[in-house]
Amino acid sequence: MSNSEHFRKLERMSAAEPMNGTIPASMKVGDGTAEVVVQVRPEFHHCARAVHGAVYFKALDDAAYFAASSAIEDMLLVTVSFTVYFTRPVSQGEMKARGRLVHQSRRLLVAEAELLDSAGRIVARGSGTFMESRTPLSPQIGYC
Fold first, then answer.
1. Per-domain residue ranges for the chain?
2. Could you list the mean pLDDT of each consecutive 10-residue stretch along the chain, which spans 144 residues?
3. Three-class DSSP category at 67
4. Would you say 67 and 101 are in contact if contact means Cβ atoms under 8 Å apart?
5. Is 74 helix (H, G, I), strand (E, B) or coil?
6. CA-CA distance, 36 to 31, in Å (whole number)?
7. Alpha-carbon distance 112 to 14, whole Å?
8. Is 142 left (phi over 0), alpha (psi -120 to 50) or beta?
9. For the domain bounded by 3-141, which CATH number is listed?
């Protein structure tokens, strides 16, 4: 399988995940990279009318996760740990997370992500550690 075919399958897997019904996002996967775009909706707001941290986390985790997943063509990864640093609130527009794979060993992968607002300002950063699960990448989990 070519890298680009693997990347498109990962994008389709992301689009098919049930959580995207709650927080819709588009995904673009490349070689050690991934980009997630979320259009801010009022239902994403907390009581102060800014986007809830859960939406930040999902965008950052997905960007880092799929950047790491771009390097593994046979097994589903799982998130072992993820740290988020919030730096600025967002109330409207688009949020774009850009992830990149920064380290890969025999058992673990480390990826980082930045989340930007519509003006291109960094509003959060995150880093995660991922490892292979026992679940193979297959059409049953949307990898097709």
1. 3-141
2. 90 94 95 98 93 96 98 97 97 97 97 98 98 96 93
3. helix
4. yes
5. coil
6. 15
7. 18
8. left
9. 3.10.129.10
> What stretches of 1-144 adopt beta strand conformation (E)?
26-30, 33-39, 75-86, 94-104, 108-116, 122-136
| Placement of tokens 């070519």 in the chain | 2
Q: Does pTM surpass 0.90?
A: yes
Task: Please state, as a whole number, how many other Cβ atoms lie within 10 Å of the Cβ of residue 138.
Answer: 12
How many residues in total does the chain contain? 144
Distances (CA, A) of 5 to 15, 31, 72, 140: 15, 11, 13, 17
pLDDT, tens only, 5-29: 999 999 999 999 999 899 999 999 9
